[in-house]
Write a structure and sequence with these properties.
187 residues; alpha/beta; two-stranded parallel sheet; 9 helices; 7 strands; globular
Amino acid sequence: MRDIIQAVEAESYVSFLTGPGNFRKNINPEYKANRKDKPLPIHLNACRQFLIEEWNTKVTEGYEADDALGIEQQVEESVICSLDKDLDQISGYHYNWVSGEMYTVSELEGIKHFWKQMLIGDRADNIFGIDKIGKVKAGKLIDPLTDQEEMFWTVSNLYGTDSERFWVNADCLWIWRKPDGCFSQQV
């Protein structure tokens, strides 16, 4: 934590852990279900407690730490410090402490990242996109677009008649920018 704070030259910080409840599991019971048989690290609870007590880490309730980071990123001059590629849909400064890379995501790059995820899906979270669309094809479909409405229609048309899965995936993949900010509530 000290190294990260120093690397980004932070004057203050806030960190988050995902806590009890997760609205995504309510709308999609299969969300992250592929992880249920994987054993948790032995010292996970001790590490969580240490972060809460020693680093004033906040625990979310009903939503994920990613959403809290997305909301917090709306504060001027903030930096998301994470290894999670899902957060690349949030515009602003980002820092990867493993690679040491500091980078910026524009608003357009962030929204394109979201729509590409909608096409590709996210196997780590047990979300399935459009069959036979990977990173390259998703990039070819989304990268030339500059209008969010055009991205919406391009992707929703590829989901075809499976509009329920489109909306469930959108709500599961969308990182909040404001409290209670599910994708379906933004459109």
